[in-house]
Amino acid sequence: MAQNNGYPFLNDSTSTSGGNETIVQNQVATSVGALILSLVFLLGFPGNVFVIWSILARARKQSVTTLLILNLAIADGSLMALTPFFIVYLLLKKWMFGNVMCKILFYLCLANMYASIQLIMLMSVYRLVAVLWPQRIGIFTSQKTILRLLAVVWVLVMVASIPAVVFRDVRNTVCDSYHDTNGQVVLQYTLELVLGCLIPYVVILVSYICILRRIRQTKFQRRIRSEKLILAIVLTFCLFWLPYHIVNMVQVTWALCPDGPIRKMMGTIWQRSRAVTSSIAFISSCANPVLYFFAGKSYIRREGLAFMARLFERAGIDSATRKSQQNSQNSRDKDKETDAVMLKDKDRDSVTNSSSNVKTAKNSK
């Protein structure tokens, strides 16, 4: 039985109805998908290249946030470089690039999904530590530490993406994932749901709930630009990838259902939705440069082409600035308390001296 790999798109031979229909035969789906991917490539590829250049060539200091954004731009830019292959696939409605490229390209697509969400999760955790435990932020600010952590993330991403190579193959001019049993379908898509959705989304959600609660509790209830920027990245990614993960859940349900009308309905849903939701997911990789542009447009007149580098530098020092502000405020509060105590002691001394003077004057009389 031929099944869909889920991650990339428009390549599924399906037997939900017992036939040999493929999604690339759907004229509307392939046209919409090709249009979306063309726009994504034109906007996302140069945008991510510009982000990478801004950090490597223009940034004076590479903070933790800057390094995470750099790796995210590399992952997204790599995916954007692959989109022309998929555009041709959709327009011709058949795979023209051979079996090896079929495996490699879809492996890289799946790796990008994992890399993007894991990097965004690290951003959220870093902001959480910076806000809740600023005294411990030095553990993460070491460049050697963050580089080691990023290396571990990339290794895990490459290992987790192996199913795309194992199951992907070209049959009847369709680059597809083929499973011998429904158990393989459940295993593959459950892995994607757990590693690419459930775990990171829960960590991100909990992190930002804690961050927002702490900001409301502190005396400095100001909107910090870097917090808004990272939150916008998180929300954008979740918004564009959520439909894809919903379709994955539908396909897992389809694989677990016994034959009948419900299974047939589930098969129709994921078959017809895979093209659009997978193309929408690609939009997330071109959205970040747009967010950076609007977040950093105030720097354009002053910094020119280096405006993004200044934005990322600012995002990296906001936590330290906030910490120093809090420390300064705490220091001022302590000084005020000290002054108050000294003033009270001075008042007591004055009262004591006055009483002594009165007694002395009476005795003299």
What does this structure look like?
The chain has helices at 27-58, 64-92, 98-132, 138-141, 143-160, 162-167, 182-217, 225-256, 261-295, 300-303, 307-364; strands at 2-3, 168-171, 174-178. It is mostly helical and 365 residues long. The chain has one domain (2-326): Rhopdopsin 7-helix transmembrane proteins (Up-down Bundle), CATH 1.20.1070. The chain is globular. The protein starts with a strand and ends with a helix. Mean pLDDT is 76; it is low at 1-20 and 318-329.
Quick recap of the structure?
The chain is mainly alpha-helical.
User: Helical segment tally?
Assistant: 11
Distance between the termini: 118 Å
- The fraction of residues assigned to DSSP E strands is under 5%
For the biggest β-sheet, the strand order reads 1-3-2
Task: Report the oligomer.
Answer: single chain
Mean pLDDT: 76
Low-confidence stretches: 1-20, 318-329
Query: CATH homologous superfamily?
Result: Rhodopsin 7-helix transmembrane proteins
Helix content: over 70%
Structural class: mainly alpha
> What is the strand tally?
3
Rg over alpha carbons: 29 Å
Outline the biggest β-sheet.
3 strands, antiparallel
- CATH topology-level name: Rhopdopsin 7-helix transmembrane proteins
Which overall shape is indicated by the principal axes computed on the Cα atoms? globular
CATH architecture: Up-down Bundle
Helix and strand element order: EHHHHHHEEHHHHH
Domain G-protein coupled receptors family 1 profile: 47-292
Biased composition (Basic and acidic residues): 331-350
Membrane topology: Multi-pass membrane protein
Biased composition (Polar residues): 351-365
